[in-house]
Amino acid sequence: MKNLLPLILFMFSFTAVAEEALTAKTAEQRVRKSICLNDLSVEQMLEKKIKKRSQRDLGWRVFEEDIGFDVERAILVNKSLQIRYRWNINPENIIIPVSKRAKRLCPTE
After folding, report:
1. 40, 32 Cβ separation under 8 angstroms
2. What are the residues whose beta carbons fall under 8 Å from the beta carbon of 3, sequence distance 6 or more?
3. What is the crossing angle of helices 4-33 and 42-53, to 10°?
4. Could you tell me which residues are beta bridge partners of residue 64?
């Protein structure tokens, strides 16, 4: 039994890390798939913007915050200017646009 304790602790810590990563991934997927204007998802709207202006996509990032996760998509406009779209997902799974660009991308009114 003594020899099993380290193995059990290792398995528990691995499971906790896997669940956390899954939660961050789920947060990103929810933002990507959330519906915006004209029945297009956030991801589709951003893809259109990137292609329209021939900008470089810097990808999605997820940040763990005190309350939920922040999900961000960055686009490189030129060598020194980046545009960032950022949303927060709270524990109730409500997506809230944080940055001005995210609010303009999918206006609620």
Report:
1. no
2. none
3. 60
4. 69
pLDDT at 37: 81
What are phi and psi for residue 65, nearest 5 degrees?
-115, 175
Alpha-carbon span 17 to 90, nearest angstrom? 20
Which residues lie closer than 8 Å to 56 by C-beta, 6 or more apart? 50, 75, 76
- Grouped pLDDT means (10 residues each) for the chain, 109 residues: 45 42 80 90 92 86 91 90 93 90 83
Rounded to whole angstroms, the Cα distance separating 62 from 82 reads 17
pLDDT for 3: 54
Rg (CA), the chain: 18
All residues at 6 or more sequence positions from 72 whose CB lies less than 8 Å from its CB, including other chains: 60, 61, 62, 63, 84, 85, 86, 87
